[in-house]
UniProtKB/TrEMBL annotation:
Domain of life: Eukaryota
SUPFAM superfamilies: YbaK/ProRS associated domain
Leader sequence segment: none
Name the record gives this protein: YbaK/aminoacyl-tRNA synthetase-associated domain-containing protein
YbaK/aminoacyl-tRNA synthetase-associated domain ranges (all copies): 150-215
Pfam families for this protein: tRNA_edit
């Protein structure tokens, strides 16, 4: 069944790319983006205080039966790890990934481009076993230096086998296999502290408060910059 989405002030720009704007219009847009980012940071506390209210409102407006089964799988997993009250789901257009990142951020009403996160499945080789053992002994230690790892992107078919999610919809919550989750340290510094990720389906996105995500996934944090 095709999904519908709540119209936003940015819908009329959905078919317009930044590259199609005139030079002065692009500059005006960049200035606007900067102002919006500053505004979000200034009202960060209020933004987060209103988060749970927005979750409840959106759940009433969206029909769960219209969500693809794979999104319902993510929704179930979020409920199991205590994220149900803070998880916000967004259906997007089929050409969403043809848009520039900033336009996608506008579509989701994300505070900035930096809040738009991507989940990728990686091979890690070699593994520093001493560091891993230290981490296992001290579960309060969540920071591991990137110098101990060599990351390689997993093939699409391997990613699907591990997660059950197709390309463009990979979500670190609700994966078929217990894949360890590593979060970029820069995400912990976002303000407001929220992240936007795939919701299991290429046409659906999920937003969560960063600290709730960290607590629920028991993820490791490292500098990936």
């Amino acid at each position: 069944m095709p999904h519908t989405h709540k119209r936003t002030p940015f819908d009329k720009f959905a078919k317009m790319l930044v590259s199609e704007l005139q030079t002065d219009e692009r500059k005006a847009l960049r200035d606007l983006v900067s102002d919006v980012r500053d505004l979000y940071e200034a009202f960060s506390a209020e933004y987060m205080a209103d988060w749970r209210t927005k979750v409840a409102e959106e759940e009433k407006e969206q029909h769960k039966q219209e969500r693809p089964k794979v999104v319902q799988k993510v929704e179930k997993a979020c409920k199991e790890v205590g994220l149900e009250a803070v998880a916000r789901y967004y259906p997007v257009e089929s050409n969403y990934y043809d848009w520039p990142l900033q336009q996608r951020a506008f579509r989701l009403l994300a505070p900035s481009e930096a809040h738009m996160c991507k989940s990728v499945i990686m091979y890690i080789a070699p593994v520093n076993t001493q560091k891993l053992m230290h981490f296992a002994r001290d579960l309060k230690e969540r920071t591991i230096s990137k110098k101990y790892y060599n990351f390689r992107l997993a093939p699409t078919e391997v990613s699907f086998e591990l997660t059950g999610f197709e390309k463009g919809g990979v979500c670190p919550i609700g994966m078929d296999q217990p894949v360890p989750v590593i979060l970029a340290e820069s995400i912990t510094k976002l303000d407001p502290p929220v992240l936007f990720i795939g919701a299991g389906h290429i046409d659906w996105k999920l937003a969560l408060p960063v600290q709730d995500f960290i607590k629920a996934t028991n993820c490791m944090i490292t500098d990936l910059a």
